[in-house]
Fold Calcium-transporting ATPase.
Amino acid sequence: MATIDGRPALYGISLKQLEDLNAARGRDAISKLEEYGGVTELCRKLYTSPTEGLPGTEKDIAHRRDTFGSNHIPPKPPKTFLSLVWEALQDMTLIILQIAALISLVLSFYKPPKTEVGNIDEEGDHGWIEGVAILVSVIVVVIVTAFNDYTKERQFRGLQSRIEGEQKFTVIRGGESTQIPVREIVVGDICQVKYGDLLQADGIIIQSNDLKVDESSLTGESDHVKKGEGSDVLMLSGTHVMEGSGRMVVTAVGILSQAGIIFRLLGATVDQHEEEAKKRKKEAKKQAKKRKDKDVEEGIVANSHTPLPTTDGMNNVGHEANGGKDTTKEEERVSHGNKEKSVLQAKLTKLAIQIGYAGSAIALLTVIILIVRFCIQTFLIEGKPWDPYYSNHFVKFLIIGVTVLVVAVPEGLPLAVTLSLAYSVKKMMKDNNLVRHLDACETMGNATAICSDKTGTLTTNRMTVVQSYVCGDYYKTSPVPHSAPAQIVDLIVDGISINSAYTTLVMLSDKPGELPKQIGNKTECSLLGFVLEMKRSYQEVRDKHPEETFHKVYTFNSTRKSMSTVIRLESGGYRVYTKGASEMVMKRCSFTYGQGGKLEPFPIAMQDRLVKNIIEPMASEGLRTICLAYRDFVPGKAEINQVRIDSEPNWDDENFIVDNMTCLCIVGIEDPVRPEVPEAIRMCQRAGITVRMVTGDNINTARSIAMKCGIVTKDQDCLILEGKDFNKAVRDQNGEVQQDLLDKVWPRLKVLARSSPTDKYTLVKGIIDSKLTDNREVVAVTGDGTNDGPALKKADVGFAMGIAGTDVAKEASDIILTDDNFTSIVKAVMWGRNVYDSIAKFLQFQLTVNVVAVVVAFVGACFIQDSPLKAVQMLWVNLIMDTLASLALSTEMPTADLLTRKPYGRTKPLISRTMMKNILGQAVYQMTIIFCLLFLGEHLLRIDSGRGADIHDPPSQHFTVIFNTFVMMTLFNEINARKIHGQRNVFEGIFSNMIFYGIWIITFVSQILIIQYGGLAFATTPLTLEQWGWCVFFGFGTLVWGQLVTTIPTKKLPKVLSYGRGHPTDVVALQNLVEDKFDGDGSDKKRTAGQILWIRGLTRLQTQLRVIRAFKSTLEDLEEKRSLHSLRSSRSHSGLRPPTANDIIYIDDDTRSNSFSGPTSMQGENRRAASAGVNGDGYLKLGRRANGVPSDPLLNYHIQQPYQMLNLVAPPSALLPVRDPSPMLDLPRLVHETSI
């Protein structure tokens, strides 16, 4: 028999049997497991140990991977370079240029008979050069675009692989707990799961400590599912651990896990849906053609009363199949109706649309004027007859018009956005910011408020017990209770060692002088350190009481604010150890130990004295106070602080179990403020950003830390509230949050203590929705816990802690702080502002070129029947201002000056008055120079005039000088564009950006080569040194002119000169309208030819914007592979069928739902559920919530983890809290009590 590391190679259970086990649910799963002999026998059949795990040898792991599969769901294959080339070629303007170039080529080879019209000389033999040059230019543009897209995709896939490699999960191998990359998990691994984990594989529960899981991402059910040997033994990938801890044996990984199965079903459904759609469309076209032929035969003429057949087969079939309801249009409305754009993206879209309108109108007008003038001059005034030779002129006019459109449409804008974001994301990784959503990068630059956690973000998160109160003695200098009786110390040591996660460890450093390494929860680490300071070993206690011997565990959550563990006593009975927030645990204590270890009653009066004399002084020094307590349940005779039992207590009655306890001690834990945080907060305040602290700690600790950080000062008029007072202030008599009440509180609120996740969400939502300030607030939020998810989702930018943060918090966030440091948030602000400024610089540069090029082409068409700038020349300028300039201006490094100005906010104009002043000022200068050269150049430079030249005449020095001067002015204006806030020194920091000056020099050298050696291909002729001197002189003049423009005071300019002002919601509505025109079937819209022209002209722009979003979703592939959004598991039903097209709704990948649904851990509130949306077959219908169903954003919290590739949205179950009416808070009294 073949063996692997001494064990049989053939497992005791087959892959098919494991699949059957994983397909069962609830009681069926328990029965199925019993068929295989239970979980212990299952582990034996998989050759693994429930306590020791796998041996972890390479040979064993490789064999399991070969047999049961690897824990990897393959991503969508990347697009090939050729497919990206093909996409770039779909741009309508490029297609028109190619057609025009081909016509030009054909006509250049056409030899008409000699007439008096066309005096074709030898130069006419080179007419093909212009057509070839245009084709070459188009090829260059296409290749550059495709290469940029290809490079971006490779970069983001590399970043995705890095993220996947960094994500780890805790397993037991060789008897030791270790963290391994998620991809390395194999069937048979023993995984340790805990509160906040996102499960990475399917498995069977071995041991459960009050384990509850949110399975709503798979089932749509909002209630937490309790996991245990007698309730539900199956753990599913893509679900979240909301409470408790435990161990499971892995039974399915990768594409064989629950997430993988649904992923395969969805992939197959999409492919099948696309194929069927293509077939239906072809069939509909055939039917339409047959119907048309039949109508012609019968002599029927379609008029306004005769409905014409549609050619959109898919819509037609969908309409008929659904009783007249057009499912495709419905899907498109859903997919485009809920978009939430970033501030900058919304403003840029509006700008691009309006530039497209203007450019299209001028291009069309240019062509019309050129044709009309030529016809009037040639056929009416000169009276010449038509000759085929004249067709060359019309092709030339068309090429000029299309080229004007190409120059006018800001195709480089998406490229600039993409390059700037990609460059910033890469650099931000080095600044400990892992950007998950690209638009969060630039949104952070607009942030006006930051709501920050305290622990770990503002503080070091290296907890240490520095004070203690034991047996009536207050130990302030050293926490070790020297005078406490041994039996009390034993109880404290046992309580700390047992009542903490066994994954939490304090390991002594190998290097002398270094602090011990803290692994796991930092508060528990500080308590374990306290045990070590008392010269005791917590590991010995844990070895005596292994985790599987625990009788019951009440895990920590935001409601309890405590943790309790029940163990069996050797003498019989049970002992409950509890630890938690001092004021919460003390309320449940009836006894305490006094001097000499004497047991004493612990009345409320004594508790109040303890709060005043011990807890408040600790808190005022910035210490977190933790109370340790215990309670015994014993058979037979019981002491005064014990409970006599005849049978096992009802462990589900937590209020009874954790009550009338005996207080052991109170400890003060110090979490010092990070040394760099006060300066970082001062930088934020100088930058116009308000920093607020939102913490679960008590108000005294929060106030102390806030003052140390500089969030509040002694002479500052501000509010410091506790969560309960905050709720009284912002809720009406019915318990509903009112915006007008919130608006009275949040502007002065600086610290919110003892806050719940609901309070945090309420505050964030209130600030975002407030209209108190003209520019509207842009809010960033930090969070680390599972219940921070709603606030992180609601915030404009959500920051999750990379070290202390749970998987759920990371899933809900936009940026992950890999070092949990507030200073990294300040760096994110700086990079965000740099992105905004980089794009603004590019806009200032490009709009100047746009205005000049379009106006020159238009005026040339009107006055000289020709464009001074030829098609190939404008394509070269387009390349300069699009690809090269976007690369140069988008890679500027951020400077400290970025944090000396106020944030832009939501409604600030995209193009400021200063920028508009620079754009118009430079445009006036450049147009003046070009028109002077156009109409007076031959006199000034003593050269032949190029005006009125025949179509086949060779290039003139006159027009070559104009082209060269225009490029020189454009190049020197690129240096001006580096500053957008009125700075005079435009050269500052220029040599710190090698990309900028490198591209500038390359462009300058290329221009020299084009002028001197471009010849007929670029319609140029070599220039003399004197002429070059004049061109460079005029170009350099833009720098001097820029200084004159800067002297004009911006404040005296009318505000109408700024552009892009207004609320982004209006901009989003406009973009959705435009994208509906792009993507809708058009059956209910009547478009004019002009609309079609500008829409098609913007196709490339829109495509590139979508490419950005596609690459953003590529960055989120990790999220795709680990979680699914609200699909009822089809494996849980007897009949297996893939979801149909009607079950699935596709939404755009940057949709971020602000309506949360799902589980809540809040207790004591009445709830009622709305329909879960299950159809007759037992499948969850995918779609949006029915209208009219109210919801609480926190209580209906459903972790939003869609496959970004498919973006599924499920109908949530609405849970409605019924709150007791609370009396209105006396705000003036509250302000007086809490102000500093």
In short: Residues 822-863 form the longest helix (42 residues). The chain is about 45% helix and 10% strand.
